[in-house]
Specification:
Non-ribosomal Peptide Synthetase Peptidyl Carrier Protein, Chain A
Length: 77
């Protein structure tokens, strides 16, 4: 999965009607709530076979922080 693929998946997960980018602050995304955190945990598990604790997700400030949680070997360039 590429970063762009991840952004598309995140848009689908959050059901946004606008395009997301890596530099966006999560606090500015109205749809980013506790349900989104749960869905993200499942996305990381299903797509990357990794477990990300809710604490780590809650500490993320930007979308790029969410991407940084994915091991580099699991991402395509």
């Amino acid at each position: 999965m590429t970063k762009q693929d991840f952004l598309i998946k995140l848009e689908e997960l959050l059901q946004t009607d606008y395009t997301l980018d890596e530099d966006m602050l999560l606090s500015n995304i109205e749809e980013y709530d506790s349900l989104a955190l749960l869905s993200l945990t499942m996305l990381y598990d299903q797509e990357f076979n990794i477990f990300v604790e809710g604490k780590k997700l809650r500490s993320c400030q930007k979308i790029s922080d969410l991407i940084a949680l994915i091991p580099k070997e699991k991402m395509d360039s």
